[in-house]
Specification:
Blueprint: H1 2-19, E1 52-55, E2 58-61, E3 85-89, E4 95-99, E5 103-106, E6 109-112, H2 117-120, E7 145-147, E8 150-152, E9 169-174, E10 178-186, E11 195-202, E12 210-216, E13 223-232, E14 240-243, E15 245-246, E16 252-256, E17 264-269, E18 282-292, E19 300-307
Length: about 300
C-alpha cells in the first residue's frame, strides 16, 4: 500500500514538470500577445501594412504616383482637373494642382496673372495679356514697322557694314588746318546691328592730325556707343587716345559709352612716325553700336573734325 502511494505521487510530479515553463505561467513565448496579429504595421494612422494604404475602410497596395490613379495614396480614381490648370501629384502621394501660365496657384486655385509687354519681350503692338485684356505696347519710332511685336527698320544704304572689313570708304579729308563734316544718313536697324564706316586722312605736311568724332541725335529710348580707330598707312603705331577710353580693337583708338541719349565724343591724336616714314596718312574707322535699342529707325548723327 505504501509503495503504491509513493508511485502515484511520483507520476503526478512528473506530469506537472512536463506541462510548465520557466516561470511564464504556461504561455508559449512564440504565441503573440492578445490583440497583436504579428504583422508589421506602418507608422500611419490607417493601420495598414507598409506599402499599403486605407481605401474605403480596407487596405490596398500603394499605387503609381500618377494623377490618373489618384496618386500614390489614391483609390484608383483620377485626380480632379481644375479649370485653367492640370492635375498633379505631390511628393506625399496626394493630388495637387499644376497651373498653366499665365495662371498660378493661389490658395489651391489657379488664378490668372496678366503678362506685361516686357514679360513677353514685345516692343510694339497690342497683344493680349493672357487674361482676356489687351495691352498697349506702343508704336515704333521713326519709320519702323511693327512685325510680330518687334520693330523692324529698313537697312540704311551702307548695309551690310557690320565689321571693319566691310566698312565702306565714305570720304577723304586733308589734315590741313581744320576740316569738319557732319553725316546723318545712317541708322541702327536692329538690336545687334553695328555700323562701321571708314574715312581716308591725307597728310599734307602739317603732321600729327588730331581727330575728334562726336555721335549725337541718339533716338529716345536708345543708348548708342561710339568707338573710333586710326590705322596708319605706313604701319606706324604711335597714335594715342586723347579723349574717351583707350580701345585698340583694330589699331590705336578710343571708345565712349555714356548713358542714354547723351552724346558720345572721342579724340585720337594721330602719329604714324616710324624709322621709315613720317607720313601720318591713314584710315579713320568709326563704329556705332547700341547697348539699348529702343526700336527707332531714326538716323543718328556723326561729326568729324580734323585739326593739325
Amino acid at each position: 500500500m505504501l509503495r503504491f502511494a509513493l508511485l502515484l505521487c511520483a507520476c503526478l510530479l512528473a506530469a506537472c514538470a512536463e506541462g510548465g515553463t520557466d516561470g511564464d505561467g504556461g504561455v508559449d513565448a512564440s504565441t503573440p500577445p492578445p490583440g497583436d496579429s504579428g504583422v508589421r504595421r506602418d507608422s500611419g494612422p490607417t493601420g495598414c501594412p507598409s506599402g499599403q494604404h486605407d481605401c474605403g475602410g480596407g487596405c490596398i497596395d500603394d499605387l503609381d504616383n500618377e494623377p490618373a490613379n489618384g496618386c500614390r495614396l489614391g483609390c484608383g480614381e483620377a485626380c480632379p482637373t481644375p479649370p485653367d490648370g492640370e492635375a498633379a501629384c505631390a511628393e506625399d502621394g496626394t493630388c495637387t494642382v499644376g497651373c498653366t501660365p499665365p495662371f498660378r496657384l493661389v490658395d489651391g486655385e489657379c488664378v490668372c496673372e496678366a503678362r506685361t509687354c516686357e514679360d513677353m519681350g514685345v516692343m510694339c503692338g497690342a497683344p493680349e495679356d493672357g487674361c482676356g485684356m489687351t495691352l498697349d505696347c506702343g508704336t515704333c519710332m521713326g519709320e519702323g514697322s511693327c512685325i510680330d511685336g518687334l520693330c523692324a527698320c529698313a537697312p540704311d544704304a551702307e548695309e551690310t557694314n557690320d565689321s571693319s572689313t566691310t566698312a565702306p570708304m565714305i570720304d577723304s579729308a586733308p589734315d590741313e588746318n581744320t576740316w569738319e563734316r557732319t553725316y546723318d544718313m545712317w541708322n541702327l536697324d536692329e538690336a545687334d546691328d553695328e555700323d562701321w564706316v571708314r574715312f581716308a586722312v591725307e597728310d599734307t605736311g602739317l603732321d600729327n592730325p588730331s581727330i575728334t568724332v562726336t555721335l549725337d541725335q541718339i533716338p529716345m529710348g536708345s543708348n548708342y556707343d561710339l568707338a573710333a580707330y586710326y590705322v596708319c598707312d605706313s604701319g606706324g603705331e604711335n597714335s594715342s587716345c586723347g579723349a574717351g577710353m583707350p580701345d585698340n580693337m583694330i589699331g590705336n583708338g578710343c571708345a565712349s559709352a555714356s548713358s542714354g541719349t547723351t552724346s558720345e565724343t572721342v579724340r585720337i591724336d594721330a602719329d604714324c612716325d616710324s624709322a621709315f616714314s613720317s607720313n601720318d596718312s591713314g584710315s579713320l574707322f568709326i563704329r556705332v553700336t547700341s547697348s539699348t535699342w529702343g526700336g527707332s529707325c531714326a538716323p543718328y548723327r556723326i561729326r568729324i573734325r580734323i585739326e593739325s
